[in-house]
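Side project, low priority. Logging it here so it doesn't get lost.
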Amino acid sequence: GRTLSGQTTEAFWNSVRHARPLTVGLNCALGADELKPHLAELSVAAGVPVSVHPNAGLPNELGLYDETPEHMGAIIATMAKAGTINLAGGCCGTTPAHIAAISRAVVGAKPRPIPTIAAATRLSGLEPMTIDGDSLLVNVGERTNVTGSARFAKLIKANDYDTAVSVARDQVDNGAQIIDVNMDEGMLDSEAAMVRFLHMIGSEPDISRVPVMIDSSKWSVIEAGLRSVQGKA
């Protein structure tokens, strides 16, 4: 139920929606059957046309694909009938016969209506987070902030990043919904510290499942942080 980088479907959409893509979709990795529930989730979340390009099933022990054009066409037809797609094609293992079957499957099908998505703050780490009028409280973990936590500042200055990562983990374990990261300290290379710390927590799924709040008074540090964090910060 996740992309290869670990994100859920909705978290992935939250990561790219600000670019206002012409279309968004899922391709490869899975066959049409396995992609169906994830397409259904994406079709509800995305306010743009949705595409699907499945493999011809999962590869067998020889690395070949066994899903027939008829089977793939039938599955694509159910997606089209359910109103979850606007564009269909094929990825690994598909042949001209598969594409022809897909083409026949969608003849006469009505394209998915583009939903109107209510305005909200939509963030993501590996998992999505929505802040709207029904959100009563958002817990932001401020302990990974060198200007607000003497202990965290001491760890970073001592180059003890492993223990510093455990500070982030403790915050998430104790209910933080967003992790604030600040490296603004005169004795630090703030950009390098920000990048290193974000890369480290990014490899920890139990931490990186929540969004990151990149906190700095320096624009260059914010830019470095945005380049180093997955999801929608």
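Brief comment: Strands lie at 24-31, 50-55, 87-88, 121-124, 128-131, 140-141, 178-182, 212-215.
Revisit when time allows.
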